[in-house]
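Reopening this ticket.

The earlier resolution said the output was attached, but the attachment link was broken on my side. Pasting everything inline this time so it's all in one place.
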Amino acid sequence: FILREGKLKELSAPRDDPQVLEILEEADIRLPWYAYLTAGLRKQGLTSRIFYESENDLAREVNDALRRRNRNDQQDG
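Inline output:
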C-alpha cells in the first residue's frame, strides 16, 4: 500500500515487478538511481529483484548473472 492524497492505495504489482516503478513514480516516491536499470535487467533474467539493500549487492548479482550467461554462451558456441 502507498499513501496518496490522504488515502491508502494498494499497489497492483509486487515490489519487484517492473510495473511497480511507474506506480511509485506517480506517487512521487523517490526511487534509487538504478531502479530502471535493474527493472530492465530483471526482464532479461539477469537480476532477481529491482530494489537492493546496497549497490554492492546489485553489482554482485549482475556480475554473477553475466558470468553464467558468458559460460552458457561459450558452451552453446
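Reporter confirms the inline version is readable. The helical segments are 19-26, 35-43, 55-76. The chain is about 50% helix and 10% strand.
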